[in-house]
Amino acid sequence: MNFKAALVTLTLGLAAAQPALAGYDKPYIGEIKKYKAKYEDTFVRLARDNSLGYVELRAANPEADPWIPGEGRELILPSRHILPDAPREGVVINLPEMRMFAYVNGDEAPASFSIGIGREGLETPIGTTTVARKMEGPIWRPTPRMREEDPTLKESVGPGPDNPMGTHALYLGWSQYAIHGTDKPFGIGRRVSSGCIRLYPEDIITLYNMIPVGTKVTVVNQPLKLAWIGDELYLEAHTDIAQAIQMEETGQITRQKLTEADLKQITKAAGEYQDRVDWAAVRNAIRDRNGYPVMIARRPSSGVSEAKPHEEPKAEPVPEEEIKAVEEHADKEQEPEQVQEPAAQEEPAQTDGDSEEKEAAYNDGGKNSTVNP
Q1: Is 329 a catalytic residue?
Q2: pTM for the full model?
Q3: Considering 44, 219, 300, 309, which has the largest number of Cβ atoms within 10 A of its Cβ?
Q4: Which CATH number fits domain 83-221+342-373: 2.40.440.10, 3.40.50.80, 3.40.50.1100, 3.40.190.10?
Q5: Catalytic residue among 81, 180, 238, 310
């Protein structure tokens, strides 16, 4: 075999050895499920058993009592999720829906986990970073601020059932933040942390084993997500970050109106089929924020369609009064709370005044890590 032939053979062999990375080509994962409650069910237990968060389960079932849903009551398990509008690589976190998507399965669906995020005043930052390092059995050291607020806190908590960081931690390039487990799993799907991202104890182990150091992490703030699934356009509306606490406590939020930003996002997604949008369905989704996809338009079928013909919504143009109302209220509407993005890609906004202490502890290799759990 001459040199040229050998080179071609080697090149073909190397190409064959590389996996085909076609990427996941659907705009969503999962399916909506219905469940008949048992006498002993609570939303806390059902959320964990079904990889959901407390707030998203409450939003999907606003009329049900979260502590005593009632024997035989039919509940919606919102297990279908439109993927966030973000690069499909590494880890993507959408704060309003309190959910993480890990694109680690090649052309298979991304792994998805419910998460807990930063509470009011200690928000989880938005932006892009990486997994800087990982640790099994992290040691948690509360900051001076935390100990001032609660003098009973120990100086440090080692591995064990009382560690607020749980059993595993993935430290981010943002030095005072990490993705970690928790000793209080009922807080998943809520705004409960000091800025870090919490997972169920079983989920953090799964994530820890699948995510290598250096993985890209993108955090976004997208209360509304839209996608065409076949010939149907779906809208998935979540509470914004500020509304999450209200939804958690009451199962409802202050009535929301369609804003100019919402209108632009929806018409952009609808594209040439704007005249087929069911604006009544849109208004209901924006008002209720149930957190699961609802159909708002259908384009003319190009062939096979899963939808039944009689389900086709009435085609409506964008109502003039809707646009007028948007214009009148745009300045008055409260926009979704925006967490200040990091000043630089790897330096998030400071939220609690403990940055120098936290960074020093972080840079000691993890033995004295001080992070916001």
Answers
A1: no
A2: 0.77
A3: 219
A4: 2.40.440.10
A5: 180
